[in-house]
Amino acid sequence: MQKPQTSVSFQGTRILINGQLTYTGHKKVEGLLFNIRTVNATFDDTLGQVSWWGDDGSRLENDYASYGGWRSPESADANTQRFIQALPSYRAWGILAVNLNFQGGHPLQQKTWISEGKGSAGARPNGHRDFYHNSGFHADGSIDENYAQRIRAVIEACDGLGIVVILQLFYFGQDTVFPNEDAIRTAVDNAVDFVINRGYRNVLIEIANEVMKGHYHHEILKPGRVVELIERVRERSQGQILVSTSEAALLSQRQWTHAQIDSVFEASDFILLHGGDGIDHGEVGDRTEIAKKIDFIQSRPWFEKQPRPIVFNESDGKLAFDVAVKRGASFGLHSGEYFQTMWPPKWGVWNNGILWFFHKVKDLTGNPGTEL
Q1: Which CATH class is domain 8-365?
Q2: Rounded to an integer, what distance in angstroms lies between the CA atom of residue 317 and that of residue 333?
Q3: What is the C-alpha separation between 230 and 260, in angstroms, rounded?
């Protein structure tokens, strides 16, 4: 890799890239980090037992892209290259961060015609690994070189464009690849070394996507103990990597106690939250769940003593966007329709149902966008 060009750092609640506040001069959003959930940009299925991933050009939500049948690893590499080719268009619209995951995301979400995709992966004894394998880690915690090469390619492409990568390590559909907690600790160490040894400075680490009691199969990936891994990253990297984890059901005391929230996020360098605009249940605007989450975090004594950035890296809806920005929190788009249900994804900014997000970012940040 060439000498790193992009570094990310924090100044209180605000985020800096190369020592300068993001979106400098645009007061409403100065220091924020608009981002998109693109965790399946490095997807692969090494089990190869199903034909779900083939794209014959018949699905409207993929704009009839017609990528053909899935063959590992050729299709995985092609998918990653299409994503890399789309990065300049994201940057032109003002997107300054993308999300990756060593264990991907939920490519079956909202695919109602696939019975295996229904329900939480956390409720299945083996997650999703009975029908597909998508993990950048082997069972012993070592890193799969093919997967690592795709993540490496994305991080370095982002580095050249001034884009930050929020690098997630674990996903609840694939965490059963690990037979025990020692393997998980080894995976964390290897991921930290992966970042540090290559000199990447545009990477933030997220331990696991949506930590809650009901998602993960290992106790160390649940609210009561995930702080151990946050501290492990900090110690292993000697403080060179900024680290956090994202939540799910944060306001449910059946999932998170207040003591656990304080323990996990006081130890975090930044706060990663999830949630939508609440239209489905009528709790919208300042009554919505994301407003309550931000207000709750900002009211905690440890936050008041040492404020830090609040970043949503999984949210959806115009109301959620406005609520987050109003409270000084970064918004990250996660659209089930266009980033998860189509497969393989058609990456980039194109004329679909999430175009509102890119226009909002463009208008607030002064970025030019591109012709569609």
Answers
A1: alpha beta
A2: 8
A3: 13
Predicted confidence at residue 286, as pLDDT, reads: 85
Q: Which residues of 177-196 are buried (b: 16+ CB within 10 A; e: fewer)?
A: bbeeeebbbbbbbbbbebbb
Reading the block at residue 367, the tokens are 């970025």
Q: Is 82 helix (H, G, I), strand (E, B) or coil?
A: helix
Supply the DSSP symbol for 245: -
- Token pair belonging to 24: 């400098």
Q: Are 369 and 357 in contact (CB under 8 A)?
A: no
For residue 168, the tally of other CB atoms under 10 A from its CB is: 27
pLDDT in tens, 256-309: 999 999 999 999 999 999 998 888 788 888 889 999 999 999 999 999 999 999
Q: Where are the beta strands (DSSP E) in the chain?
A: 8-11, 14-17, 20-21, 35-37, 97-101, 164-170, 203-208, 243-244, 271-276, 310-316, 332-333
Nearest partner of 370 among 90, 130, 132, judged by Cα: 90
Tokens coding 122: 């956390």
With beta carbons less than 8 A apart as the criterion, state whether 72 and 132 touch: no
Q: Which residues contact 93 (CB under 8 A, 6 or more apart)?
A: 349, 358, 361, 362, 367, 369, 370
pLDDT in tens, 203-258: 999 999 999 999 999 999 999 999 999 999 999 999 999 999 999 999 999 999 99
- The sign one gets for the Cα dihedral 73, 77, 83, 87 is positive
Q: Are 210 and 247 in contact (CB under 8 A)?
A: yes
Phi, psi of 301 (to 5 degrees): -55, -40
Of 89-98, 257-266, 331-340, the least confident: 331-340
pLDDT at 2: 73
Judge whether residue 312 has pLDDT over 90: yes
The domains of the chain are located at 8-365
DSSP state of 323: H
C-alpha angle 354/360/363, rounded to 5°?
145
